[in-house]
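Q: A reviewer asked whether we had any structural model of the full assembly, not just the individual parts. We don't, so I'm hoping you can provide one. Inputs are below.
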Amino acid sequence: MTDETPLVKIRGIKLEGRSDETWNPIINGVDLTLARGEVLGLIGESGAGKSTLGLAAMGYTRDGVRISDGTVEFDGIDLLTASAATKRDLLGKRIAYVAQSAAASFNPAHKLMDQHVEGPVQHGVNDRGSSEEDGIELYRKLRLPNPDEIGFRYPHQVSGGQLQRAMTAMAMSCRPDLIIFDEPTTALDVTTQIEVLASIRDIVEQYNTAAIYITHDLAVVAQMADRIKVLLKGDEVETADTRTMLSAPTQEYTKSLWAVRSFERPKKPGVSTGAVPVVSVQNVDAAYGKVPVLFDVSFDMHSGRTVAVVGESGSGKSTTARCITGLLPPTAGQIMLDGEVLPADYRKRSKDQLRQVQMIYQMADTALNPRMSIGQIIARPVQFYLGLTGAAKRKRVDALLEQIELEPSEYYNRLPSELSGGQKQRIGIARALAAEPKFIICDEVTSALDQLVAEGILRLLARLQDDLSLSYMFITHDLATVRAIADEVVVMKDGRVIEQGDKEEMFRPPHHAYTDLLLSSVPEMDPDWLTNLLTERGVDNIGDAAVDKM
Amino acid sequence: MILWIIAALVGMGALAWGFRFAGQAATGNAPKFRDMPYGVAYGYVLGAVVLLWLIWAYMQGRSSDPAIANKFFFLRIAIEGFIIFAIAAWLFRLLGCAVGTAWSRKMFRSMPLTASFGILTILIYAILAIFAPAFAPYGQEQIIPGVAANIVPGGDVALGGNPEFPLGTDQIGRDIMSRLIYGAQNTVGIAFATTLLAFLLGGTFGFLAATLGGWLDQILSRLVDVLMAIPSLIFALLLMTIASVWAPQLGIPLTVFMVVIIAVIDSTRVFRLARAVGQNIVVMDYIEAAKLRGEGLGYLVFKEILPNATAPLLAEFGLRFCFVFLTIAALSFLGVGIQPPLADWGTMVRDLGGFVNYAQFAPLAATAPLLAAGAIALLTVAVNFVVDWMLHKSSGLKE
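A: Here is a predicted structure for the entire assembly that you could use as a starting point for your response.
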């Protein structure tokens, strides 16, 4: 790092967003300084204004957002008063942006290479031929498979992790001074994420590019950033060196963020032999049309216990849940409830059988009818299954709202859109509880939530389990969640159960090779974790590359 | 002539450049002028020139020499109408902001002028249609004794008008204003009933197809494809011709046939929309949750799907209403729709259509058929403005 002028200098920036005819503050006066070649991590909950601030560093705002005060300087150029021509020249050439969802950001109608060369050719950095060569070089450096050919594929022909790396290559194509990464790995599996992280870190170091890395995952930012800035509701909480920040955070809020990962339930006594499992999946095969997706899946779930089903996307976790609920009748095998065989199709199940198996969904936004009030949503199963009406129904709904720690009088008449993400998820839980079930399937219930909120949901689920002796099937790809809540773990891959057993057993070596890979791919809060892992295993033995070798 | 046009374009080109330069100099190079592309500057100049021409033409229209004034008569009326409607819409919105509940006041504040114009127009039409007998000075089929036919609108005796009949009389001496007001009742009322029926049919089958899928969806969708493959106006005309033979035999009014025929033809479009919207909703997790709860089809369609489909369906209702309305007017114009002596705007345009030929030297006489045509156009524009605004609101777009 040199003592010259900083690359990015933001002073006292204020941003406002328009909603309901008024301008509401999003960022209230934040300073940001970034030196050349430095990587700054921006973390905070959703709604903290991370992305808005990241975009403001490019002198850009989304529709309905305006900069009301402050200055943004890039390499001495004032971006807020610069002419459109000056900005056009800077953006893409000296400042680049990598979006969260590469799949949504690439134009599906053009090949990767055609999109890659657009920037350099447009800005006159390179002609088409040499930018293509450079693109192949970048693909190689980012360790994409078949770097010579992958550029001539269409976006849908490569995987999500590869697409994210191709997008990083595209951002690199003009050798910018600054790249803004907006949650580039949030949508990826752990094994894919680790590859993308390693590639991004490598290439940023190699070309001495400065970067702003926006994420809500602390462990990820610990690997990537030199410095970390914590945001809370548009205000800066604190900024410090990564190591200082991790070892000695000064603010209460930062400490609470760090402490999230400490939640862990006490170990429960083992299941007594001969106990009838609440739900038992027995030798289930399933197929979508003619494509088989599940092969001989069997596991048991006992009363008052949580079974975590882990695996990457496409491993058959959610399909198993669909078989249990009866949405997808298995082609072979059966599902038992309390020792009785459940009809394969949910339409053939009795009302009581349907009541016993409830589900909580990943996306609370799509799981709650946006046109029904909270009261109506929870009251429906109460009335439908238990036949309560009038005052009795209202009383039961109030009791349920209290159970999920929401004040009944305040929330009863609200619509789902008036609730935060965590509150919506609580309503989803209350709706499941309203049926008074024995068994609840939780399908990635915390993966769309911020860590603090997710922890609250996990604690609530744990408390409810103790109070009502519910049994959970917990589908997740996040091993920190598994560690927090599970009693037993089932690892799935390609539609098969790879390994299953007690949580302690599963987290203790020796593991099955795949379980080992999964466990080792989960980022830890240690800033040296990625470096150590890479030296330990070598770049070719991490992530998807390692999965493919199995 | 061509040379003149080229000269004007070149002159405007120079003006545009000068405009941008002057703007930069006057505002001290503010971003608005600094970053202004040449095309935008040209657009400003072009807009100014068109505005100047309109003002000049309007002054010509008010000229005391009838030969000149007649040439610009309709333009004058259009400009005056535009300004009057704009002021009325603005006043209406002002009124809406001042009275009513907090919710309605907020709605009026965020409403564009076009939407408030649309709502005002629709309100006026609705009141006229519902209380037609109270507003109309004469009956719709009443031939007033002793009154000449073809009295020119405007009420100016010197030009062949009669102050007692401000909008004139038609070819057999009926009061045009009364017939216009009753026409609102007949045409708009029947169009409303038809649209409702079309939505009942199309919406029900569309949601059923979306929810149940499978062979029912296939049969209904292919049936709709077949119906949509036939040009709708010609199809309606064909069926109406058949119906006009059946109607007297069965003793059912022809209007009932018309409502059913147009409703069935238009319900195909509603079906496609309802099915598409329904399919997007059916894949939501809350529908899955309701299915797993064991809910029946009725609950799914009416409690879970329908409330989430109201916004696009309402917007479609407004649009479909316009089309139905135009189809009825077209059928009446062709002679198979609403039958005389009932007043109907389409028939009125047909009956008085010949007067349009006098537009050049006697614009007032040519106004007679345009009154009914204008009533149709005004309502169509108004409904579309309201629909646009509702779509914009439901899409959640900001600015």
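A: Points you may want to mention in the reply: Chain B touches chain A at residues 31, 34-35, 109-110, 284-286, 288-289, 291-295, 303-304, 307-308, 398-399 (CB under 8 Å). Chain B has a mean pLDDT of 86.
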